[in-house]
Write a structure and sequence with these properties.
- The radius of gyration is 29 Å and the shape is elongated.
- Helices cover about 65% and strands about 0% of the residues.
- It has helices at about 15-30, 35-50, 55-60, 60-80, 85-105, 110-120, 130-135, 150-164.
C-alpha cells in the first residue's frame, strides 16, 4: 500500500532572499507547479552534487545542445593551439636556464652581465620607495562570506526564470 508524506520548511520573511522565495512559492502554488518544482529541484541539486548532468539535461534539453556546442568549440580551439607538452618542456628548460644563471651570479653583484645572460627577457623597471600616502591605496582582502541559503536562493531564482 502506497502512502504519502509531507515535508515542511520555514522561511524567515525578515530575510529579503527568503521573502522573495516565499513570493515564488505563492506563484508556483497558484500555477499548481510547486510540488513538481520542489521534486525537480531536489533531484537536480542531488544529481549535480554527485557530479552528474543527467537530470539537468533531462529537465532542460536545450542545455545539452549548448553544452555540446561549447565543448566542440573548446576542442577546436585546443586543436589550433600548439602542442602543450612541447610548450611546457620549453618553459621548463627556460626556467632551468634562469635558475642556473641566477646561481652563477649569486656571488657576483647583479649588473649588466646578468641582464645580458638573461637574453631577450624584459627587464622590470625600478620601483621607487613606497610613501605613507600609498599605504592608503592598498587593497584589503577579506574572506568571502558564503551562506548556503543565498546560493540555493540564487539557484532557485535562476530555475524559476527558465520556467517563465
Amino acid at each position: 500500500m502506497a502512502y504519502r508524506v509531507q515535508h515542511r520548511f520555514w522561511l524567515d520573511l525578515d530575510n529579503p532572499d527568503e521573502a522573495s522565495l516565499n513570493d515564488l512559492t505563492v506563484q508556483l502554488r497558484k500555477k499548481r507547479a510547486f510540488t513538481a518544482t520542489i521534486r525537480d529541484g531536489i533531484r537536480l541539486i542531488c544529481d549535480l552534487r554527485r557530479g552528474s548532468l543527467d537530470v539537468l539535461f533531462e529537465l532542460f534539453p536545450w542545455v545539452r545542445a549548448e553544452f555540446l556546442d561549447y565543448m566542440q568549440a573548446c576542442l577546436r580551439r585546443q586543436a589550433l593551439q600548439p602542442d602543450t607538452a612541447a610548450a611546457e618542456q620549453r618553459l621548463e628548460q627556460q626556467l632551468a636556464r634562469l635558475e642556473q644563471l641566477l646561481l652563477q651570479q649569486a656571488s657576483a653583484p647583479a649588473g649588466p652581465r646578468l641582464i645580458e645572460a638573461l637574453g631577450p627577457l624584459a627587464v622590470p623597471k625600478a620601483v621607487g620607495p613606497v610613501s605613507d600616502e600609498d599605504d592608503a591605496a592598498l587593497v584589503t582582502v577579506t574572506k568571502a562570506k558564503v551562506d548556503g541559503a543565498h546560493i540555493a536562493q540564487n539557484f532557485i531564482r535562476s530555475m524559476m526564470a527558465l520556467q517563465q
